[in-house]
C-alpha cells in the first residue's frame, strides 16, 4: 500500500502539519515551493511513493527516500451493509495493534447534497469505559499518531477515487466530504495528536476540509473542551451525553464521576459563547434505561431551550453489553416529539450498519472472538 523503510529513525511525513513538514524538508535543502509541492503530492494526489513525486526534483526525491516514510495501514477485514451505504474496516497498525474506521454514504439529504463521511479512530481502545460501548469493554492500549489518524481518511479517499475511475465518470465523486472523530477512543484524551490531524485535514493546500466538515465527538473532558474553545480549533463539537442526571450518566459514562453534568454543560455553554458554534448533543436511546417521558423532561431542564441541537440515535446491539438494547421506533418518536414540544431541536437519526456490527469496536471484538 505504501513505500516505507524499516528504519525507525525515518520521519513519518503524515505525522507533520504543513508548517512542520516545511521545516523538515528545509533541513534537506528544499525550498518553500518544494514543500508545498510535497504537501500536494500527499494530500491532493494521495501518493505514497517518492518515485512518483516527479515534481519535487530527483535530488529531493532521493533525500526523502533516505530520511522519510509514510504510515502503513494493513486491511484485515471489511464489512459492507446490505444497503451498500456503510463500509466498516479493520486495520492492523505497524506494531500489530488494530483499529476500526468506516465510510458512510448519505444520498439526497433534502437539499440535494450528497455526503461521504469517514469515521476515524483516535486511539487503540478507549480509556473512558462506557458500559454500552464495545470499544470501552476492550480497555485502552495507546494513542494514535496524527499520521495514523489521517491515514484512515486517506484510505477511503483513495478507495472512492478508484471507484470513480472504474465508473468512468468525470465527476469528483471520490472526494470524502466529511470526517468525524467518532471511532475508537476519546479524541480529547489524545488532544495534541488529534489537533495536529485536524490541522492536516483542514489545510487549504491539501484536503481543505472546513470546520463544518470536521466533527469531534467527546464523552465530556471539561478542561480539553475549554482548551478547544481557547484555541478555536476548526471543527464542530459533539457531546456524547446519553443521560440527563449524574446518577444515570455515571452508570453509562464513568467520566461523569470526574466531570458532573452541571460542570460539563457549563463548559459547553462557554465553548458556544467563545466560538459562536453550537455543541451538538448525541443521545443514544437505550430501551427502558434513558428513553422515558421523564428522561425527556429532565433533558429539557438540563439543556434549556434552543441551546443544544440533539441527535437521537437508537443504539447498536453489542453482544455482552449487559442488556443495552435500542428503543422501539414508536418510543423513540415519542421521545423526540416531547423534546421538540419542550423547545429543543431534536433529530432522530437512523443507526447505520447494524447488520455488519458497525457500532464502535464491534468489528474488532468479533475478530478477537474468532481467533
TrEMBL record:
It comes from the Bacteria. Transmembrane segments: none annotated. S-adenosyl-L-methionine binds at residues 185-186, 217, 240-242, 316. One of its GO terms (molecular function) is tRNA binding. Binds 1 [4Fe-4S] cluster. The cluster is coordinated with 3 cysteines and an exchangeable S-adenosyl-L-methionine. Its cofactor is [4Fe-4S] cluster. Keywords: 4Fe-4S, Cytoplasm, Disulfide bond, Iron, Iron-sulfur, Metal-binding, Methyltransferase, rRNA processing, S-adenosyl-L-methionine, Transferase, tRNA processing. Residues 112-349 form the Radical SAM core domain. It catalyses: adenosine(37) in tRNA + 2 reduced [2Fe-2S]-[ferredoxin] + 2 S-adenosyl-L-methionine = 2-methyladenosine(37) in tRNA + 5'-deoxyadenosine + L-methionine + 2 oxidized [2Fe-2S]-[ferredoxin] + S-adenosyl-L-homocysteine; adenosine(2503) in 23S rRNA + 2 reduced [2Fe-2S]-[ferredoxin] + 2 S-adenosyl-L-methionine = 2-methyladenosine(2503) in 23S rRNA + 5'-deoxyadenosine + L-methionine + 2 oxidized [2Fe-2S]-[ferredoxin] + S-adenosyl-L-homocysteine. GO terms for cellular component: cytoplasm. It is found in: Cytoplasm. Gene3D superfamilies: 1.10.150.530, Aldolase class I (3.20.20.70). [4Fe-4S] cluster binds at residues 126, 130, 133. The active site is at residues 100, 360. Its EC number is 2.1.1.192. One of its GO terms (biological process) is tRNA methylation. Reaction proceeds by a ping-pong mechanism involving intermediate methylation of a conserved cysteine residue. NCBIfam families: rRNA_mod_RlmN. Belongs to the radical SAM superfamily. RlmN family. Specifically methylates position 2 of adenine 2503 in 23S rRNA and position 2 of adenine 37 in tRNAs. This is Probable dual-specificity RNA methyltransferase RlmN. It comes from Dehalogenimonas etheniformans. The gene is rlmN.
Amino acid at each position: 500500500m505504501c513505500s516505507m523503510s524499516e528504519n525507525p529513525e525515518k520521519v513519518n511525513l503524515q505525522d507533520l502539519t504543513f508548517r512542520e513538514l516545511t521545516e523538515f524538508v528545509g533541513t534537506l535543502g528544499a525550498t518553500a515551493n518544494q514543500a508545498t509541492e510535497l504537501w500536494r503530492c500527499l494530500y491532493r494526489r494521495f501518493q505514497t511513493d517518492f518515485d512518483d513525486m516527479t515534481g519535487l526534483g530527483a535530488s529531493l526525491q532521493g533525500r526523502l527516500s533516505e530520511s522519510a516514510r509514510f504510515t502503513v495501514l494493513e486491511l484485515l477485514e471489511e464489512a459492507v451493509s446490505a444497503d451498500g451505504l456503510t463500509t466498516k474496516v479493520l486495520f492492523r497498525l505497524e506494531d500489530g495493534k488494530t483499529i476500526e474506521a468506516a465510510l458512510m454514504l448519505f444520498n439526497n439529504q433534502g437539499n440535494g447534497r450528497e455526503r461521504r463521511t469517514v469515521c476515524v479512530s483516535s486511539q487503540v481502545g478507549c480509556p473512558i469505559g462506557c458500559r454500552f460501548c464495545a470499544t470501552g469493554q476492550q480497555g485502552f492500549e495507546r494513542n494514535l499518531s496524527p499520521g495514523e489518524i489521517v491515514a484512515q481518511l486517506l484510505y477511503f479517499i483513495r478507495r472512492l477515487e478508484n471507484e470513480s475511475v472504474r465508473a468512468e465518470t468525470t465527476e469528483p465523486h471520490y472526494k470524502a466530504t466529511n470526517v468525524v472523530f467518532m471511532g475508537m477512543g476519546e479524541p480529547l484524551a489524545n488532544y495534541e495528536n488529534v489537533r495536529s490531524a485536524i490541522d492536516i485535514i483542514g489545510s487549504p493546500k491539501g484536503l481543505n476540509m472546513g470546520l463544518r466538515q470536521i466533527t469531534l465527538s467527546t464523552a465530556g473532558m471539561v478542561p480539553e473542551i475549554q482548551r478547544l474553545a481557547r484555541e478555536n480549533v476548526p471543527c464542530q463539537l459533539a457531546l456524547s451525553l446519553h443521560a440527563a442526571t449524574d446518577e444515570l450518566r455515571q452508570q453509562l459514562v464513568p467520566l461523569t464521576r470526574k466531570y458532573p453534568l452541571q460542570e460539563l454543560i457549563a463548559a459547553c455553554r462557554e465553548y458556544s459563547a467563545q466560538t459562536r458554534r453550537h455543541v451538538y448533543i448525541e443521545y443514544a436511546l437505550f430501551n427502558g434505561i434513558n428513553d422515558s417521558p421523564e428522561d425527556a423532561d429532565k433533558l429539557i431542564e438540563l439543556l434549556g431551550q434552543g441551546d443544544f441541537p440533539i441527535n437521537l440515535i437508537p443504539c447498536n446491539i453489542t453482544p455482552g453489553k449487559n442488556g443495552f438494547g435500542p428503543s422501539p421506533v414508536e418510543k423513540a418518536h415519542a421521545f423526540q416529539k416531547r423534546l421538540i414540544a419542550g423547545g429543543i431541536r431534536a433529530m432522530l437519526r437512523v443507526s447505520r450498519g447494524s447488520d455488519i456490527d458497525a457500532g464502535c469496536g464491534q468489528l474488532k471484538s468479533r475478530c478477537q472472538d474468532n481467533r
